[in-house]
Amino acid sequence: MTPPTHAFAPSHAGGSMSGVAADPQRESAGALATVISDISRLTRPRIALMVLATVVASVWLTAGRGFDGTALAALLLGTLLVAASSSIANQILERATDRLMPRTVQRPIATGRLSIPAASMLTTALAVAGVLIITFASGWQPAAAAAATWLLYVVVYTPMKMMSPLNTAVGAVAGALPVAIGWLAAGGPARLAAGDSSGALAVAALGTVLYLWQFPHFMAIAWLYRRQYALAGMRMLTVDDPSGLRAAGQSLAAALAMVPVSLVLAVPSGSIRLFLTAVIASIAYAAAAVAFAVRRDDASARTLLLTSLGTLLALLTATVLCGLPT
Question: Which homologous superfamily is 36-196 in?
Fold first, then answer.
């Protein structure tokens, strides 16, 4: 029997076996660094920031400056809590496979630094708090969209990674759903019913862009870590097809489809700057996908991955700065 694991328990003993007196200040700093690192690994802040940026962009496209700043802050806080909860729940379910892959072996649940009961209570508390905050700030519809995103990501996508390479298509839906959170919070349905279709068109284009964007992004990751995924028994497309042809084909098809769809982002506002940004960013993404399709090696996959991040950053930034409906 192993001793019970405590929440965020240090992974090393506090004392020294060498007889040399320990430095309490150094130990305290090390423990704090471990906790901060564990929180980062648990909540995956880069993914959370992408989700928040998506919500901001969809609110902006729908309501522009007419959306209350306090309500937006509460909406983002609630969304952040739900996103963090989904990440923790994902790691609870994947703790066994996380232990098999070098890229995830140091996650706090996989190592036992955070116990399953503590993680379960934490993910539940964050999800409930997030949904309640969104409900009180923006209504039940965006809260329902946030809950649906959580369920799709945790209950459907996470276990599907062990069952079918179609998991990417399902995960891409979960990745695009935060657009609905912002649109519903900003009164999108009422605006559409009143005849204001420009915001709905732009938000629909943004959601489609986010859905398509994820295929090259995650196929690049699946290629770079294909051996680790295979070791863990995960059904990534690069595991089912080690040649990479199918992964490259999906990446290329999605990136090419993104070119015309991203241009629709600029239609409601008529912004030339947004149009040019969409042209340059989407064509650069497609070019990286072409290179990956031709070469199918780690270098081209890494370039595609980096290009995907730059493309998304450029599109979301330009959408917020230039995409205000006229």
Answer: UbiA prenyltransferase (1.10.357.140)
